[in-house]
Design goal:
The complex is a heterodimer of chains A (560) and B (913). Chain A is mostly helical. The chains are: A mainly alpha (560), B mainly beta (913).
Chain lengths: 560, 913
C-alpha cells in the first residue's frame, strides 16, 4: 500500500514538472532570421520600402483620392476625411499625419538596411546556379534604397516644407531633438543623391534577372530629380525668385527627354495609361501595380450600377478646362452661362481626353456588356441626385476606372490597376513650365534646344489627341496650367501644383459642379458652386502638434 | 428552493467552508479573507440559461454587466468584473470550477453547489498571476452518503418583448430626410406628391411603409430545460451524476424553410459524473468528468445581433419587402440590405461545440508518518473545440421605379441585382479551440498546540499549460506556495501566504514573489444580546500578474504588415520585412498592493452585516513610450513599466433572516458597492492640461463639453471657430476649454465617469415562505457608468450613411424641439462637428431591474407519500419583467444594436424521488 502511494506521488510530481517557463513562440522574424535568409529576409526589406510608396489605389481616404481635395473632383460620400481638406476640419490637432509618419518609417527602414549592409552575406548560395543573378540584384539594392530615401524626402518636403533631414539611424533621444532643415537644402540633398546614384541603376529591368519590372530605374531617378527641381523653382519654395532654379529644372527634364527613347520610353495613347496592361505601357517611368481587383470600380461606378458608389466625381471646373479641337476655345469660354445640352450638344468636338476622363449624362457606361446602361446623372435621373450617394457634380469618373470590370455579385471580374508615379508626359510639361519661366517666352529654344511650346505640342500632337498647337507666349501660363490639369487629371498632381504656384484662392475656392435638370424633356446645365474653403495656411501641412509636444525644437508652419 | 438556504451564508456559521484553491479551505468563521458565497440552491431562483446568467446582483463585489446577444453566440450575455477596473492592462478576472480555470457560460445552474467571489489579497494569494483582478470559484455538486436520490426537473420558458427603440414610419422618415437634405443645402429627396404617397400608403410597392421589426421578430421565443440527477453513496463511494438538456429558440420570424429552419437555436447537453472513492481509510480519490455537446444555429447572412441591427439600419420607406414580381426588395442605396431575405433565404450556419473537462484528486492522510499530515495531488485536463458548418444560399433582390409619371404602372422598370445561386453550398471550418492541463500537489499539516488553537501549514506546487487559438497564445505557469494559518481561542486569527509565481508569458521576467498577510479578530461571539457576533478582518498583499502587451517584447520586433509590393511580368508580389519596434529591455512584472479592511456582524440572531473597504495600488504596468518619442525616429517605441493606477471603494451587505412563526419565514437582503479608480502615472504628453489623463479614470469617458447648439449664422460668426467641419445652425457648439480661441481635439476633457464598469452596484433580495408557498424577488441596479449614445446606429447616429431614424431622436433634435433640443440638427451627411465624442453623446446611465421573481408551491406530503415521492415543487419564474432607467429610447443596460435582453416567464416542475 505504502508503495502504491509512493508511486502515485512520484507520478504526480513527474506530471507536474513538465512545463517550461522559458517556452516562447517568438522564433520567426528576428534579425538572425532576416540576415540568415537573404533572398527572403533581406530582399523583402527592400520591397517593404517600395510598398510604402504613396499609391492612391492603396492608400486613400475611404475611397477618396487626393483629386477630390482639388478642383478636379468632388467625393460623393460624406463619410470621408477628404472633406477636411476644405471644410475647416483640418488643424494641427487633426493633422493628416500619414506622410510624416510613413516617410520617416520608410527612411528608418532604409537606414537599417544601409547601416547593416555588411551583414548581408550571399556566400551560402555560392554554388547555386542563380548566384550570379542574386549578386547582381543585391548590388543594386543600396542604390534603389537611396533613390527611395530621396523620394520620401521629396514627399516630405512638398508636404511640410522644411523637414528634419535625417541620414542615419537615430535613437529616440536624438529624434526628439532634431531641427527642421530648410526646404531648399532638402531639395538639394535629393538632387545630389539622384546625381550620385542614377548611373548605377539599369534603364530597364526587362534584361535584369527575373525581369522585376516595377523597381526604380535610371529614368526614375532622373524624373525625380526633374520634378524636385521644378518644385524648388516654384513660387511656394523659391521665395527669392531665383531664376537659375528654373534653368536647372529645365536642364534636368531635358536630360531625361534626350535619353528616353534610347531607353524605350515613348509617349503612348492616352487610353493606354490605365487598364490591365498599363504597367507595361511605354510611357510609364515608374508605376505601382496592384493585385487584380474591382474595388476601384465599385468605389467609382455610378450609383445605380450594382455595387457602384459614385466616388470621385469630376467637377464642371475640370470640364470647363477642356478645349474644343476646332478652335482651342475652352468649354467655359464657349458656354459661360446656362447650357441647353439637348440642343447645343456642348460636348461635341471637345479634346478627346475629355471622353476618356469623364462619364457624362447619356454615356453608355460601364463598358462591360453585363452592366452597360445609359447614364442619367441629372437631378431625378436613374444615377442622379437626390439618390443617396449619387454624383454631386453631374459627372462620373472614367479615367483609371476599368470599365471591363464587372461588379455584379455573380460573374464579377477583376483587373490590375497601376498607379502612376512618373510618366513621360509629365517630364515634357515640367520642361515647358521651367523653360517658359526661365526665358519668359514660349518659343525660345535656348541652350537646351527645345522651346516650351514645342514641348507641350509633343503632347498635343499625339495620334489619339491631336489638339491645336500652342503658339506664341500670350497667356501661355494660363493655357499651360489647363493643359497640365487636363493631361495629368486624377494622377495626384493638381493638389500640389496649385500649391507650389501659390494659386490656392484662384483655383480652390469657387469650384463649380454641374447642376443638370431635365426641363420639358430638355437637359439644362447650370453651374453651381461647391462648398469649399481655402485658407493660405493650407499651402503647407501643419506639423502634427503631437510631434511638437515631443520635440519643441520643431517649429510650426505659418498660420497653423 | 427553501428560504432557509438563504440564511446559510452567515459569517458566524462554522460549517460553511470557503475554498481558496489547492485544496485549502477555511471555515468562513475563521476566514480572514474578503469573500462571498451564494449557494446553487439560491441561484435556482433564477430561470437563467447558464450559470453566468444567474449571477446578476447575487454576489457582493462581483459586477455582472450584459452586452446582450443570443445565448448561442460566444461571448454574449454576462460579463464579469470584480471591484471595477484596476489597471491600464488587462482587467479580466479568473474563473475557477472545482479549482481549475474553466468557463462558466455553458455550465448549468443545476450542477452547481456554490459560487464564491474572491476579492482581496488574502483570498487571491494562492491563485497566482491570473487571480490578480479577483476570482470566481465554482463548486459543483457531489454525492453524499445516503440512499439513492433522483432529482428530475423540467421547465419551459417563454421569452418575449425584445426591446428596441421606436423608429419613424415611412412618411415621418421621408419628411425628416427632406428636412435633413435641406439643412445640408441639398435638394429634397421627395416631392410633396411622393410624401403624400408615403402617408396614404396607396402605392406600397413604390412608396412602402415596412415595419422592419415585424420582419425580424416574432412574438415569442422559448427555452426548455430538462434534467435528471442521480446521487447518493455508501461509506466508501459517493457519486453525483447529472444529465441536463438545455434548449433555446430565438425570436426571429418566418424561419421555417421547408427542409430547414434558420431560427436562432441553442441545444446543449451536459453530462456529469462526480465520484468520490475511499480507497483505504486514509486514501481518498475523486474523479470528475463533464462532457458537453452544444449546437447552435443561425441564418447564414445575419447573426442575432446583425438581424437586430437592420431594424436600426433600414428605414420603413427604404424599399418594399418584395417587388411586384416577387423579388426581395432592395435598392442601390441599401444594396442587399433586406433583413427578411437574409433571415429567410440565405441558408444557415451551425456551430458544433464539444467540451470535456476531466479531473482527478488524490488525497493521502499521512498520519502514520506525522500526525496531522496529508498529501493531495490534483490533475485536470480540459479540451474544447468549436467547428462551423455553413450551408449558404444566394438570393436576388430588385427594385422598381417609374420611368414615366408617378403611378403609371405602364412605365415601370425593374432592376435585378444580387446572387443568382439558389442551391445550398456547403462549407466548414474549425473556429476555435482551447485546451488546458492543470496539476498541483501539496503537503498539508494541521495541529494544535493547546486545546483552543489551530495551526495549519501547507506547501504546494502547481503547474498549468494553456493552449488557446493562434500563435502567442500558449502559456506555461507554475506556482510554489506556502501558507501558515493560526487561530487562538476562536478570537485571534492570522494567515500568512508566501507565493512564488512563475510564467512563460512574461518571459524573460519569469518569476515573482508574492507575500500576503491577513489578520482577524473576533471581538464577540455569543448567543444572547443584541450583538451575537463581530469580527474585524484586515489583509495586505503584494500580488503580481504576467500580463505583457505583446509577445516577445524583449526582441526588436520585425513585422511584415505594410502590405505587398507587386512587380514583374507576372505580377509577382512580396510582403516586406521591417523593424517595427525597439526591444523592451527592462521591466518587472505588474504589481498590485492590495489592502482590505472588513467587519462582519450578526445582530439579534437574525441580521448579518458585512462591510469591506479596499484600496489597491497597481504599478509596474507596461505602457508604450510612443507618446514621448517623435515619429522622426521611424521605429515604434519600446514599452516602459511606468504605469500605475490606484483604485478603491467599499462594499456593504446586510441580510435579515428569521422564522417569524411556525409557518412564516422571511428573508431580506441588500447589497451596495462603490468603486473608483484613478491613473496615478502613465506616459503621456498632453498639449494642454485639460488633456492630462493622470488623475483621471482608466476607463474615463473623454469628450468635448457642449454649450448648446448654434442658433443662427450670427451665432456661428461670433463664436470661436470649430475645427472639425463646416458648421451650420443647429450644430453642436462647444466650450473652448484651453482658451486658445479655437475648438478642436485639444478642448476635450474628462467627462467625470468611467465607461467600462458601473461604479455603483446594488441589489435587493426578498424571500418569503408561508407554509408550502414561497416567493422570491431580486431587484438589481447599477449606476454611474458612461455610455456612448452615438455608438447606437439609427437611434442616435441617424440618417447619415442611410441609417434609420428613431422617434426619440426626431422629437428631440434641434429642428423639432427648438430651444429644448437634446441633439443637433438633422443631416443626411456625416457632420464631423457633431460626431465628436462629447457630453451630448456620453451619458451617465443607471437602471434598476426586477431581475428575477419566483412563486413556488410544494405539493402536500400526504399525496406524495402514496407515490413514494419525496418532494414535488411547481414554480413560475419571471425575468426582467420590470425595469426603470434614465434612457428613454431603449434599455440602458444593453445600450447597443445587439440582440436585446428579453423578458421571460418560466414554468417548471421539480421532483425528488
Amino acid at each position: 500500500m505504502k508503495k502504491n502511494i509512493f508511486y502515485t506521488i512520484i507520478a504526480v510530481v513527474t506530471l507536474c514538472g513538465c512545463v517550461d517557463l522559458k517556452y516562447n513562440e517568438v522564433s520567426v522574424r528576428d534579425e538572425d532570421w532576416i540576415y540568415g535568409n537573404p533572398t527572403e529576409g533581406v530582399k523583402n526589406m527592400v520591397f517593404d520600402v517600395y510598398a510604402l510608396m504613396f499609391n492612391e489605389f492603396k492608400t486613400n481616404y475611404d475611397g477618396a483620392l487626393m483629386c477630390s481635395a482639388t478642383d478636379e473632383a468632388d467625393y460623393a460620400l460624406s463619410l470621408s476625411d477628404i472633406h477636411k481638406f476644405y471644410n475647416g476640419g483640418w488643424s494641427a490637432a487633426n493633422p493628416f499625419p500619414e506622410t510624416w509618419a510613413r516617410s520617416y518609417r520608410a527612411i528608418a527602414e532604409i537606414h537599417t538596411y544601409l547601416e547593416k549592409i555588411d551583414k548581408v552575406n550571399l556566400d551560402e548560395y555560392k554554388y547555386d546556379s542563380n548566384y550570379e543573378n542574386m549578386k547582381l540584384q543585391f548590388d543594386l539594392f543600396p542604390y534603389e534604397l537611396r533613390y527611395l530615401r530621396a523620394y520620401f524626402y521629396f514627399e516630405l518636403a512638398k508636404t511640410y516644407g522644411d523637414v528634419p533631414l535625417v541620414t542615419t539611424t537615430l535613437t529616440n533621444a536624438q529624434a526628439n531633438n532634431v531641427e527642421r532643415t530648410p526646404v531648399q537644402q532638402v531639395f538639394q540633398y535629393i538632387v545630389d543623391e539622384c546625381d550620385a546614384i542614377a548611373e548605377y541603376l539599369p534603364y530597364t529591368y526587362a534584361n535584369e534577372p527575373n525581369a522585376e519590372i516595377g523597381r526604380a530605374t535610371r529614368a526614375t531617378v532622373l524624373a525625380l530629380k526633374a520634378r524636385t527641381l521644378l518644385y524648388a523653382a516654384s513660387p511656394l519654395f523659391n521665395k527669392d525668385n531665383d531664376k537659375e532654379l528654373w534653368h536647372r529644372a529645365a536642364a534636368a527634364a531635358k536630360d531625361l527627354l534626350d535619353r528616353a527613347e534610347d531607353w524605350g520610353l515613348t509617349l503612348s495613347d492616352y487610353a493606354s495609361l490605365w487598364g490591365q496592361k498599363a504597367f507595361f505601357n511605354s510611357e510609364l517611368i515608374l508605376g505601382m501595380v496592384r493585385a487584380e481587383s474591382n474595388d476601384f470600380e465599385k468605389a467609382n461606378y455610378p450609383v445605380g450600377v450594382e455595387n457602384g458608389n459614385s466616388g470621385n466625381c469630376p467637377t464642371q471646373s475640370l470640364v470647363d478646362a477642356y478645349e474644343y479641337q476646332s478652335d482651342g476655345q475652352t468649354f467655359k469660354q464657349k458656354h459661360p452661362g446656362s447650357v441647353n445640352v439637348t440642343r447645343e450638344n456642348p460636348y461635341e468636338g471637345l479634346d478627346p481626353r475629355f471622353a476618356l476622363t469623364v462619364v457624362k449624362n447619356g454615356d453608355r457606361w460601364p463598358s462591360n456588356g453585363a452592366q452597360k446602361i445609359t447614364i442619367e446623372s441629372y437631378i431625378g435621373g436613374f444615377n442622379g441626385a437626390p439618390k443617396y450617394g449619387a454624383t454631386t457634380t453631374g459627372y462620373y469618373l472614367r479615367k483609371f476606372v476599368d470599365g471591363s470590370c464587372v461588379t455584379t455579385y455573380n460573374n464579377a471580374t477583376t483587373r490590375r490597376h497601376t498607379w502612376i508615379i512618373f510618366r513621360l508626359a509629365e517630364v515634357y510639361l515640367n520642361y515647358a513650365e521651367a523653360m517658359f519661366n526661365y526665358y519668359g517666352d514660349a518659343d525660345t529654344e535656348g541652350d537646351l534646344g527645345l522651346s516650351a511650346n514645342a514641348a507641350v505640342n509633343v503632347l498635343r500632337n499625339r495620334a489619339d489627341i491631336s489638339m491645336p498647337e500652342f503658339k506664341g507666349s500670350e497667356g501661355f501660363m494660363e493655357r499651360y496650367r489647363r493643359e497640365r490639369m487636363v493631361e495629368l487629371a486624377f494622377e495626384g498632381h493638381r493638389f500640389w501644383d496649385v500649391r507650389r504656384w501659390k494659386m490656392g484662392p484662384d483655383f480652390f475656392s469657387g469650384i463649380d459642379a454641374a447642376q443638370l435638370q431635365l426641363i420639358s424633356g430638355e437637359l439644362i446645365l447650370d453651374r453651381k458652386s461647391l462648398d469649399r474653403k481655402w485658407d493660405d495656411r493650407y499651402y503647407l501641412y501643419p506639423i502634427p502638434q503631437s510631434e511638437i509636444q515631443k520635440n519643441p525644437k520643431l517649429t510650426q508652419n505659418q498660420g497653423w | 428552493m427553501s428560504v432557509s438556504a438563504l440564511a446559510q451564508v452567515s459569517p458566524s456559521d462554522k460549517d460553511i467552508k470557503v475554498d481558496l484553491g489547492y485544496g485549502i479551505s477555511q471555515s468562513k468563521y475563521l476566514s480572514t479573507a474578503s469573500t462571498m458565497t451564494v449557494t446553487g440552491e439560491e441561484l435556482q431562483q433564477t430561470a437563467a440559461v447558464s450559470l453566468a446568467e444567474a449571477l446578476y446582483g447575487r454576489l457582493l463585489g462581483l459586477t455582472v454587466t450584459s452586452n446582450g446577444g443570443f445565448v448561442g453566440d460566444e461571448g454574449a450575455g454576462a460579463q464579469f468584473s470584480i471591484r471595477g477596473n484596476q489597471t491600464l492592462s488587462s482587467n479580466s478576472i479568473l474563473i475557477l470550477v472545482d479549482g481549475y480555470e474553466r468557463p462558466i457560460d455553458r455550465l448549468t445552474v443545476n450542477e452547481v453547489e456554490s459560487v464564491t467571489v474572491l476579492k482581496d489579497a488574502a483570498a487571491l494569494a494562492m491563485l497566482g498571476h491570473e487571480g490578480i483582478n479577483g476570482a470566481i470559484l465554482v463548486k459543483t455538486k457531489r454525492g453524499a452518503e445516503g440512499k439513492v436520490t433522483v432529482d428530475a426537473g423540467y421547465s419551459h420558458k417563454f421569452t418575449f418583448d425584445p426591446q428596441t427603440a421606436d423608429m419613424m414610419d415611412a412618411y415621418g422618415y421621408a419628411s425628416a430626410l427632406n428636412r435633413a437634405r435641406t439643412n445640408d443645402g441639398l435638394t429634397p429627396a421627395y416631392t410633396e406628391e411622393e410624401l403624400g404617397l408615403f402617408k396614404s400608403g396607396t402605392d406600397p410597392l413604390f412608396y412602402p411603409n415596412v415595419d422592419w421589426k415585424k420582419q425580424v421578430y416574432r412574438n415569442m421565443g422559448s427555452e426548455n430545460r430538462a434534467n435528471v440527477a442521480v446521487h447518493g453513496g455508501k461509506q466508501n463511494i459517493k457519486y453525483y451524476t447529472l444529465l441536463d438538456y438545455t434548449g433555446a429558440r430565438g425570436l426571429l420570424t418566418d424561419t421555417e424553410q421547408g427542409d430547414y429552419s434558420s431560427q436562432l437555436k441553442y441545444s446543449k447537453a451536459n453530462i456529469r459524473t462526480n465520484v468520490d472513492f475511499d480507497v483505504t481509510k486514509t486514501t481518498h480519490v475523486s474523479v470528475d468528468l463533464l462532457a458537453m455537446f452544444l449546437e447552435t444555429a443561425m441564418p447564414n447572412d445575419v447573426d442575432a445581433n446583425g438581424a437586430n441591427w437592420y431594424i436600426y439600419k433600414t428605414p420603413s420607406s427604404a424599399f418594399p419587402l418584395r417587388t411586384s414580381s416577387g423579388y426581395w426588395g432592395g435598392n442601390e442605396a441599401y444594396g442587399d440590405g433586406n433583413v427578411a431575405a437574409k433571415i429567410q433565404e440565405s441558408g444557415f450556419q451551425k456551430t458544433h461545440q464539444r467540451q470535456i473537462w476531466a479531473n482527478a484528486k488524490f488525497v493521502q492522510d499521512l498520519d502514520f508518518l506525522v500526525k496531522g499530515l496529508s498529501f493531495q495531488g490534483n490533475i485536470g485536463y480540459d479540451n474544447a473545440s468549436i467547428t462551423y458548418e455553413q450551408r449558404n444560399k444566394g438570393h436576388q433582390y430588385a427594385y422598381e421605379y417609374y420611368t414615366g409619371a408617378i403611378g403609371d404602372k405602364g412605365s415601370v422598370k425593374e432592376v435585378v441585382m444580387g446572387n443568382k445561386e439558389q442551391n445550398l453550398k456547403f462549407n466548414k471550418w474549425v473556429n476555435k479551440q482551447w485546451r488546458r492541463f492543470q496539476g498541483s500537489m501539496g503537503l498539508y499539516y494541521q495541529t494544535s498546540f493547546r486545546d483552543d488553537d489551530h495551526f495549519l501549514a501547507s506547501v504546494a506546487y502547481s503547474v498549468k499549460n494553456e493552449i488557446l487559438d493562434g500563435q502567442h497564445n500558449t502559456w506555461n505557469r507554475s506556482n510554489v506556495i506556502g501558507t501558515v494559518h493560526y487561530d487562538l481561542k476562536d478570537k485571534y486569527i492570522a494567515d500568512l501566504t508566501l507565493a512564488a509565481n512563475g510564467s512563460s508569458r512574461c518571459y524573460p521576467e519569469t518569476w515573482s514573489f508574492s507575500p500576503t498577510l491577513a489578520l482577524g479578530y473576533i471581538f464577540t461571539n455569543k448567543e444572547s444580546g443584541a450583538l451575537n457576533f463581530g469580527k474585524l478582518r484586515a489583509s495586505a498583499g503584494l500580488l503580481h500578474t504576467d500580463y505583457v502587451p505583446e509577445a516577445g517584447i524583449w526582441l526588436s520586433k520585425w513585422d511584415n504588415t505594410n502590405g505587398h509590393f507587386y512587380f514583374g511580368q507576372s505580377n509577382a508580389s512580396a510582403s516586406g520585412n521591417f523593424i517595427k519596434s525597439f526591444p523592451t529591455t527592462s521591466f518587472t512584472q505588474e504589481t498590485a498592493q492590495i489592502y482590505n479592511f472588513g467587519v462582519d456582524l450578526r445582530l439579534w440572531n437574525a441580521l448579518d452585516i458585512t462591510a469591506d473597504g479596499f484600496y489597491q495600488h497597481r504599478n509596474h504596468i507596461m505602457v508604450s513610450a510612443n507618446d514621448k518619442n517623435s515619429w522622426v525616429v521611424g521605429i515604434q517605441s519600446a514599452y516602459e513599466d511606468a504605469g500605475s493606477v490606484d483604485s478603491y471603494g467599499f462594499e456593504l451587505g446586510a441580510r435579515f433572516s428569521k422564522q417569524l412563526s411556525r409557518d412564516i419565514r422571511l428573508n431580506v437582503a441588500g447589497q451596495f458597492s462603490f468603486t473608483r479608480n484613478k491613473i496615478d502615472y502613465t506616459i503621456e504628453n498632453p498639449a494642454y492640461s485639460n488633456l492630462a489623463t493622470i488623475g483621471k479614470r482608466v476607463d474615463e469617458a473623454w469628450g468635448l463639453q457642449s454649450v448648446g447648439f448654434f442658433k443662427d449664422q450670427a451665432d456661428i460668426d461670433s463664436s470661436p471657430s470649430q475645427e472639425f467641419s463646416r458648421v451650420r445652425p443647429g450644430d453642436i457648439k462647444y466650450k473652448d476649454q484651453n482658451g486658445d480661441g479655437v475648438i478642436n481635439e485639444f478642448d476635450k476633457v474628462a467627462l467625470g465617469c468611467g465607461k467600462a464598469v458601473p461604479s455603483i452596484n446594488y441589489s435587493f433580495n426578498l424571500g418569503f415562505e408561508y407554509k408550502r408557498f414561497g416567493l422570491n424577488l431580486l431587484v438589481q441596479g447599477a449606476g454611474k457608468q458612461m455610455k456612448n449614445l452615438f455608438s447606437v446606429d439609427g437611434v442616435w447616429n441617424v440618417i447619415a450613411g442611410n441609417k434609420n431614424l428613431s422617434k426619440h431622436y426626431y422629437n428631440n433634435c434641434w429642428d423639432v424641439a427648438g430651444p429644448a433640443a437634446k441633439y443637433p440638427r438633422l443631416s443626411s451627411q456625416t457632420v464631423a462637428n457633431n460626431t465628436q465624442s462629447s457630453d451630448i453623446w456620453y451619458k451617465s446611465v443607471y437602471f434598476v431591474k426586477l431581475r428575477n421573481c419566483q412563486l413556488y408551491y410544494h405539493l402536500p406530503q400526504p399525496w406524495l407519500d402514496k407515490l413514494r415521492i419525496a418532494d414535488v415543487k411547481v414554480y413560475v419564474q419571471g425575468e426582467n419583467l420590470l425595469s426603470f432607467d434614465n434612457v428613454k429610447a431603449m434599455d440602458a443596460e444593453v445600450l447597443s444594436t445587439a440582440y436585446p435582453m428579453l423578458k421571460a416567464v418560466n414554468l417548471g416542475l421539480s421532483i425528488t424521488f
